[in-house]
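Hello,

Following up on my earlier ticket. Below are the two sequence lines again, exactly as submitted.
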Amino acid sequence: MNANIKSSLHDISRYITDVGHAARNASRAVGRASTSQKDKALSAIADLIIEHAETLKKANAIDLVAGRSKGLDDALLDRLELTDERIVSMAEGLRQIAALPDPVGTITDLAYRPSGIQVGKMRVPLGVIAIIYESRPNVTADAAGLCLKSGNAVILRGGSEAINSNQAIAKCIKDGLEIAGLPADVVQVIETTDRAAVGELLRLKDSVDVIIPRGGKGLIERITNESEVPVIKHLDGICHVYIDDDADQKKALSVAFNSKTQRYGTCNTMETLLVAEAVAADVLPLLAKMYADEGVEIRACEKSQLLLANNNIESVAATESDWSTEYLAPIVSVKIVQNIDAAIAHINQFSSQHTESIITENYTRSRQFLREVDSSSVMVNASTRFADGFEYGLGAEIGISTDKLHVRGPVGLEGLTSQKYIVLGDGHIRQ
Amino acid sequence: MNANIKSSLHDISRYITDVGHAARNASRAVGRASTSQKDKALSAIADLIIEHAETLKKANAIDLVAGRSKGLDDALLDRLELTDERIVSMAEGLRQIAALPDPVGTITDLAYRPSGIQVGKMRVPLGVIAIIYESRPNVTADAAGLCLKSGNAVILRGGSEAINSNQAIAKCIKDGLEIAGLPADVVQVIETTDRAAVGELLRLKDSVDVIIPRGGKGLIERITNESEVPVIKHLDGICHVYIDDDADQKKALSVAFNSKTQRYGTCNTMETLLVAEAVAADVLPLLAKMYADEGVEIRACEKSQLLLANNNIESVAATESDWSTEYLAPIVSVKIVQNIDAAIAHINQFSSQHTESIITENYTRSRQFLREVDSSSVMVNASTRFADGFEYGLGAEIGISTDKLHVRGPVGLEGLTSQKYIVLGDGHIRQ
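Thanks for your patience. The regenerated structure is below:
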């Protein structure tokens, strides 16, 4: 960021406007940068991050001390901490992004039309992306890397508790961009912790093409409501597994257990288990025993509570609100449903349209589930925990979109681009 | 629309909320409808439109009389009129949509991942689309047809001056849907001319997935600013043709003439002509003579005005505002630029990012123009007038998006869909 911009920090509105203009200008340069130039920048940034690991840790220590004295809880302090391992993994992430194919400029579907013109689509950057996120400083490097590789300029607004860590990472990024001959303004990390900066960013509809908030539901809803710039949302994950009449019992137990317990705090963790009535007595007691042994609380519908009680397994009566709660904790809600139609109806009513999986050996019902469930990831005989950019082969992700427009599910490089039409003629005119 | 909804017409907010819920319910049915069922509905609607041509014309006559007594101008009255030819063409349009391939359910990129799961993308409807448009009643049939074929439910809010025509067309659509066994609420045409209905539609973020306004810039900007629902915008077309140093003179004259004069009132008409300094003296006087003979007013930059004056061709001095004006009239602004870089800089500053074309025989510069011009259609040696859904092979279009997210350029069936991820496993769990 140049001195001119820095000097306007006392006037937040002016500062953010200047950041927006600088980003728009930089977006033209990075939009036409060659793949090798972008990859050179990514690997230079990775080198600098490793080289300056001690500097990063010192800056991070200032944030950690401030965080402790502000009374941040342990989970937040843990997310904020830059360990050696996390620094290496940040650099590794950037090298992985460099190794991904460049989506920009890819031309598809180029075909002749009856008029004689040839029409196709070219993948192009979105332009300027603003990312508003909370505590983890590694997001600064990840997000910068993904936006850079996809040919976008980016404005990063991290959590105030990570300001020193983020500025130290920003320094590595800017130096890396310059080594590759790219403008430093391709990645700008907001230099103030003033909360007014977020409000100003949301008004930059001429300079910013899309805003991606990463954080709690409250943050995302506030940004969506206030923003004049289009937003790609990553809301909560109320994910379902449905065990069908024709489920293979071993797969059902394994997938339903993994979907809930492999990690509790992630958005692709199953929160509600649906079980077909016909197999409930065979499957549910076994599965509930596995959950109970793992310390997972079961919130059961009336039928399943009765079934579990008959098998001497403890459960809590589910209330209506359980069907729309993202626990992010060792709790699972369980409902016995009549059949696949009832399961799909329940999912389409209560799901957050994130990820749902059916366990079945039945060909027709697997197709029905894939077609009729309106979620960003729909699975057959696989754990919901697979809904993730790395697992899907995107290389990295900037979030998981629960929107329907533009991009659904894990957002990788392609989600940060758009397609324009190209037309090739030989002097063709319209008759 | 059922009697229950009609009865709430005195309470606009309640009425629109009910319309939204009915659309959401209907979207599930049409989302899983088979291709043949949707095509059957389209061809039944086409038949009914032809069969009831006299009824449509009678309803239209009421609108025309009311329009004349309200003092609508001739252009508006012309757009409002349903002639026999337009009725046939509406029906023909629906049959063409029926003949297009169904995008819904198409699976692409299904590939195995190292974990053993198979990951791909399935094309799915957006859900519920609301379209807000002005006078042309044929939009009612076109928009309904495109939304239906792409598996979406649609809420149509036409201009108040076309209310009787639109309701008569709506009757044909509803009867056609029922013949094919689809819910009549798949297509709902708002039954009130109360302007409050638009405001209510813009608040339906739980029932409506996207709003597409079609009409003047004022309407579109108001809707974009007010809407809580995502909007796909079709703003103005300030389109450019750039005649490069290495342009073939014959192609340059032909394309630049066609781009301006083939039709004046369309968004893909060229408004500004850019000419490389090196060829201006060879090309511009010839071209200006052709424009002058056609009655096109020339608003020229200083250099080009001098050049034209030396050739005894009249022109007006262009002012700064000419570079950002969509004339929609026999007027062209002309600027001599130093080279392709100056042309691209001018375009990226003043263009509405709709459509731009370069005339050149130079391989490298054609590639530079295609890559660096950030517009929804970028052309080489072809008339800007080709930027159109029919010409691009989309079969039909619901508008031309000047947005960058989701869809750019002509919006056909695919633009009304999204993609979700599908994952196929055999009991796979995440380690």
